[in-house]
Automatic annotation (TrEMBL):
Pfam families: Molybdop_Fe4S4 (PF04879), Molybdopterin (PF00384), Molydop_binding (PF01568)
Keyword flag Cytoplasm: no
Similarity field: Belongs to the prokaryotic molybdopterin-containing oxidoreductase family.
Organism listed in the record: Candidatus Kentrum sp. MB
Name of the protein described by the UniProt record: Anaerobic selenocysteine-containing dehydrogenase
Keywords annotated in UniProt: Iron, Iron-sulfur, Metal-binding, Molybdenum, Oxidoreductase
Ranges for domain 4Fe-4S Mo/W bis-MGD-type: 3-59
PROSITE patterns registered for this protein in UniProt: 4FE4S_MOW_BIS_MGD (PS51669), MOLYBDOPTERIN_PROK_2 (PS00490)
Stretches that traverse the bilayer: none
Essential cofactor(s): Mo-bis(molybdopterin guanine dinucleotide)
GO terms assigned for molecular function: iron-sulfur cluster binding; metal ion binding; molybdopterin cofactor binding; oxidoreductase activity
Length: 693
């Protein structure tokens, strides 16, 4: 048996850990950490180590399918790629001729082909690309852009004295391989942590300060911290005077956030807020890691704005060991690959949700509420077809019952995925896609570039890039694409004088950060200033300074429901990989033991959690470190093993309990963290409830 070993980079999460893939007889034998990778040095988390189980899973889709039964069933027939692509292309050609905006393209979490999807949409003439941008990464990105014109990331290798981990659990959840290993390096080098999280995570256990806020109250907390810093005179006056706009307005604005009031809003003791604020402001350099934990409430955009302002007034922006401004790698990548110029301006105005959530639309994304409305009511125009690349819409979006109605009503649905997920079962055509070990890909991650290399072919699977490239060719859009998808690799690297072969030989490139770039060129805002108060937001009719507003309908439940990602799954993926599933076999509701006792619930019993007129079931697990008013459940849970069982994606799906309204105006973010809920012991029909008193 001839064994070959390839260097690559993992993509079981957002990715980036260097790996070695051993292949023999067209099968992956092992995927192991690459000890020579300079950043990750052989590290692999449980998800990465489960790659083998994913690649050769017996339920992998390996051939295109056409649905022959009702929507939601598992009745599909195998068809050829030729037939499948012809059918999809015919549908698209028809829509392009009638109304290109009637086509919606969709993806889940970014898998390094997001820019391809935008390029395809722009070439087709549709402004409607749908993804979870309003609840993941884009509140952070747009909040940052509206403040300083750019995105920042923590400079872990710049020796920060203090790192604030805000609503993020990188070490346990392993959602961003390269970033997580950077954080671990900084901790080993002596950085001290302030962890802000309703849950006592592994990082919280190592922190100098752990602040346990009410879920969704982060904006109030950030504004309270700013007030302490200004009151104590700990701000960086030199930076503020030379580079910012709106400092006076801020000082006036945060007067309302007195510590006692902030304690009431956030549940964090005023004395602890003060101590943490002083520690942060006095640090020689401090970085802030912002996670999706704070990007999923109606106050998310305000929270991000306040956090960026906090970093700015303490002089931590673009400072060594602070929050460094992202610099493009120079390849045809995040900025250029989407080819925005291909989309006519008139089409931009037709983006679904662009009137309601203008910042989300500025970032190029449609809003799910508007898409479902268009499908169900034909307003402002009907949707003719939806192409989904790697997204389980039924577990991803708020109000899953409405998503189901929309998919039922969708005139044509194509899904490209690894498995016959609940969403794929609603599709007319299902296409089998390659896993990360079966495709060549340029990985672009902050200032990091790496080569993900195809190690083998499984069945007839194709990468999403290949599918998009082939569809584009069939639709006569070839001039904007490549003869073969892999031809793009050299073309994209050409601006930095590199070839794909060259990048594969190097493995990865990471440009060292350059600090304080704003001193020479100013910030990338209209007048080069750091916007504490944003004139752009003011002109758009949004608040120019961030403010916290208590979400509506907070009195409708006894508890606040919130969710978190599991260390063993990546969003809705991998629940069907035995070695991961055995580490978390069931969806658990974490409760304080006193909360459980109040409802005669004991560890291991089933709890029915109710919100917004629905209930979902979770197995009770005690967590004595939670606030007694909080209930934690996993995000995006479903049971792939119950393929025929109609409740496999509804029974413990937190999005059966969430709603999309009323979302935040700027980004359309709904309240997903901190939803009023009820709690009761679940008694199966015919059973007798056991009293635990
Ligand atoms: S952290 Fe992410 S990239 Fe690293 S091994 Fe785990 S899944 Fe792979």
């Amino acid at each position: 048996m001839a064994m070959r070993t390839m260097k690559s980079v993992c993509r079981m999460c957002h990715g980036g850990c260097g790996v070695l893939i051993d292949v023999a007889n067209d099968r992956v034998v092992e995927v192991r950490g690459d000890p020579e990778h300079p950043l990750t040095r052989g590290f692999m988390c449980p998800k990465g180590r489960a790659t083998l189980a994913l690649v050769h899973h017996p339920h992998r889709l390996t051939t295109p399918l056409r649905r022959i039964g009702p929507k939601g069933s598992t009745e599909f027939a195998e068809i050829t790629w030729e037939t499948a692509l012809e059918e999809v292309a015919d549908r698209l050609a028809q829509s392009m001729a009638d109304a290109p905006e009637s086509v919606v393209l969709s993806q889940g979490t970014d898998r390094n082909y997001q820019e391809w999807l935008f390029r395809f949409g722009n070439a087709l003439g549709t402004p409607n690309v749908l993804g979870p941008a309003h609840i993941c990464f884009y509140p952070k990105m747009m909040g940052s852009i509206m403040t300083l014109g750019d995105l920042t990331f923590p400079d872990y290798d710049g020796n920060p004295e203090c790192i604030v981990i805000w609503g993020s659990n990188k070490i346990e959840c392993h959602s961003d391989g390269v970033i997580g290993t950077g954080l671990m390096r900084a901790m080993r080098a002596g950085s001290q942590l302030i962890v802000i999280d309703p849950k006592r995570t592994a990082l919280a256990r190592k922190a100098k300060y752990w602040l346990r806020p009410k879920p969704g109250s982060d904006a109030a907390l950030a504004l309270g911290i700013i007030r302490v810093i200004l009151d104590k005179g700990l701000e960086n006056r030199a930076f503020i005077e030379a580079h910012t706009y709106g400092a006076r307005e801020l000082a006036e604005h945060v007067r309302a956030y007195i510590p006692e009031k902030v304690e009431e809003l956030t549940w964090v003791p005023a004395s602890l807020i003060e101590e943490a604020a002083i520690f942060y402001a006095r640090a020689s350099a401090a970085a802030i890691e912002v996670g999706t934990g704070i990007e999923q409430s109606t106050n998310a955009f305000a929270a991000i704005r306040a956090i960026r302002i906090l970093s700015g007034i303490c002089g931590n922006i673009d400072r060594r060991g602070g929050d460094v401004i992202w610099e493009p790698t120079g390849i045809i990548g995040r900025r250029d690959l989407p080819a925005r110029h291909l989309l006519p301006e008139s089409a931009e105005h037709k983006r679904l949700g662009s009137n309601e959530h203008r910042l989300l639309s500025m970032a190029g994304w449609a809003h799910p509420n508007a898409v479902w409305n268009a499908v169900l009511h034909g307003e402002p125009y009907p949707v003719a077809a939806m192409l989904v690349f790697g997204s389980n819409l039924l577990t991803l979006y708020a109000n899953a019952a409405r998503v189901q109605q929309a998919l039922e009503a969708m005139p044509f649905l194509m899904v490209a995925d690894l498995f016959l997920t609940p969403t794929a079962r609603m599709a007319d055509i299902v296409l089998p896609v390659a896993t990360w070990v079966e495709r060549n890909q340029i990985v672009e991650f902050n200032s990091y570039l790496a080569a993900r290399r195809k190690a083998l072919q499984v069945g007839q699977c194709k990468s999403d890039e290949e599918i998009i490239n082939t569809l584009a060719q069939r639709l006569g859009l070839g001039e904007h694409f490549w003869h073969q998808a892999d031809d793009s690799l050299n073309a994209r690297l050409r601006p930095i004088g590199l070839t794909w072969k060259g990048l594969c030989e190097l493995g990865y490139i990471a440009n060292p950060p350059r600090y304080e770039k704003f001193r020479a060129a100013g910030f990338r805002t209209r007048d080069g200033l750091f916007y504490i108060a944003s004139p752009v937001l003011r002109r758009m009719g949004y608040p120019s300074l961030p403010r916290y507003e208590e979400p509506k309908n907070m009195d409708r439940g006894e508890y606040l429901l919130t969710s978190a990602h599991s260390p063993f799954f990546f969003n809705s993926e991998f629940h069907n990989l035995p070695e991961l599933r055995q580490r978390q076999p069931e969806p658990v509701a974490e409760l304080h033991p006193c909360t459980a006792a109040r409802h005669c619930l004991q560890e291991g019993m089933l709890a029915a959690i109710g919100a917004n007129g629905a209930e979902a079931l979770f197995r009770v697990q005690y967590n004595e470190y939670l606030d007694e008013r909080v209930v934690y459940v996993p995000a995006s849970w479903w049971d792939p093993e119950d393929e025929i069982w109609p409740r496999s994606w509804t029974q413990s799906n937190v999005n059966m309990l969430t709603t999309n309204t009323p979302p935040n105006p700027e980004m359309g973010t709904p309240q997903l963290r901190g939803i009023p809920c009820t709690l009761r012991a679940f008694v199966p029909p015919g059973a007798t409830q056991v009293s635990t008193s």
